[in-house]
Structures are given as structure tokens and as C-alpha cells.
Amino acid sequence: MKKSLKIAGISIGSLVLLAFGIQGFLLRGTPGQSLSPQNYQDKVDYSSVPTLLIPGWGGSTITYNKMIKYYQQKNIAQKVLTIWVAPNGRIWTEGNFHGQKNALIQVLFTWNYNGTYHPQIKQLTTVLNYLQKHYHMQKINVVAHSYGGTEFIHAYMGSKYLQDHMRLNKVVFLGVPVEESLSDQLKYRYHLVNKSTDKNFHQLFLDAVCKIKLEK
């Protein structure tokens, strides 16, 4: 009996250590590579507005790893900062942002396997506030995948402070559900957005329409 318990304990301990090892690997962050002005490409617009890369449910370093490496290899952009956020809101970073051109900032949630996106809204709000206050970011680009986009919508649109102090330049959503108040069972869900009760979705939609009209 004791031998069986000992074996079971060792097995469970080994699995826990393996899980932590895998999670550590997934959250390692993509290495950055500085972009030299002499390597600028003629057809690329280089801007001091940073781009935030937000993963979706279960997303990790792998989410944007190939994209970041490709952009750096082609001298299109440079990864300058990784920012990790824990479920309790604790933040730690690697790298620095000081106005580099076409800077990429990689956001990594230490745990984003929840049954809903709501826990990450609070964490992402903390990240956005940190970036605005610590680096005085007044304008950002956003690339968000899946639930990461939904989290961003609610984090940004739900904060008057962020809307007043951090403008959105360009936002790219990759397979983002966006509107969460309509049932997944509806066959024509996305044709019924006018029936939405999601106030943040409506506000984002109106802001996008206004921006399009101004650009015309």
C-alpha cells in the first residue's frame, strides 16, 4: 500500500513538474531583434506608434512567434518588449520601449485557460494602464486573436481613463468573436448585430464608423 502511494505521489509530482515545464516553454516570449534605419524597406511605413500583440484563449508565445520572426527577418518591425500578466494582476516585463520604429509588444497571460474571457479583461486592463502610465503611450496599434480581441474591446471600452489617454491608431482582429451577447446557437448570429445588447461592441462599432467617415 505504501509503495503504491509512493509511486502515485512520484507520478503526480512528475506530471506537475512536466506541466510547469511546458507552460514555461510556452510563455518564454519571442526573442527581439533590433531594426536598423539602414535596413528600412522602401514600401514600409515606419512609425513610432507601437503594436500590441494579444493572444486568444490558451494563446502563448507560439501565437505570434512566426509572424514576429518573419517581420524581423524582413526588417519590417522589431520586437522590443514582452509583458507577462498573472491572474492576480501582477506584471513583469523583459525589454524596453522608448519610441522605436514599428515596435512590437508581446502580451502573455500566465494563465488563460478559463471557461470565459472575463478574467483576462481585468488583466488586460492592468496591462494597458501599465503601458500608458509607465511608457506614456498616447497611441497604439492592436493585433488580437480570438478571445484576445473580445478581451481588448471590453478592457478598452470599459475604461474611461484609457479612452481619454490612449488613442487607437489601427486595430486588427483575427478570428475574434467580438459580439458576445448573442447565443452561439443562432444560425445567423453575425447578421443580427443590431440586436446586440453588448454596449462595448456598439461603442466600438460607432467609433469605427465615425473614423471611416472622417478619413473619407
Describe the structure in your own words:
The protein has 216 residues and is an alpha/beta fold. The protein has a single domain (2-178), classed as Rossmann fold (3-Layer(aba) Sandwich), CATH 3.40.50. It has helices at residues 2-26, 61-73, 118-135, 147-157, 160-165, 199-215; strands at residues 51-54, 78-85, 91-95, 103-109, 139-145, 167-174. β2 and β3 form a beta hairpin. α3 packs across α4 (147-157). The mean pLDDT is 84.
What is the element layout, followed by pairings?
Blueprint: H1 2-26, E1 51-54, H2 61-73, E2 78-85, E3 91-95, E4 103-109, H3 118-135, E5 139-145, H4 147-157, H5 160-165, E6 167-174, H6 199-215
Parallel strand pairs: 1-4, 1-5, 2-4, 5-6
Antiparallel strand pairs: 2-3
Structure summary:
By secondary structure, the chain is of the alpha/beta class. It contains six helices and six strands; from the N terminus they run H-E-H-E-E-E-H-E-H-H-E-H.
How would the global form be characterised? globular
The CATH topology label is Rossmann fold
For the report, how would you describe the main beta sheet?
6 strands, mixed
The computed structural class is alpha/beta
Mean pLDDT: 84
What share of the residues does DSSP label as strand, in percent?
15-25%
CATH architecture: 3-Layer(aba) Sandwich
Strand order of the largest sheet: 3-2-4-1-5-6
Write down the secondary-structure element order: HEHEEEHEHHEH
Which CATH class? Alpha Beta
Count of distinct strands: 6
Number of domains: 1
Oligomeric nature of the chains: single chain
Low-confidence stretches: none
- How many helical stretches? 6
CATH H-level superfamily title: Alpha/Beta hydrolase fold, catalytic domain
Considering DSSP H and I runs of 4 or more, what fraction of the residues is helical?
40-55%
Spatial gap, N to C terminus: 77 Å
Rg of Cα set: 20 Å
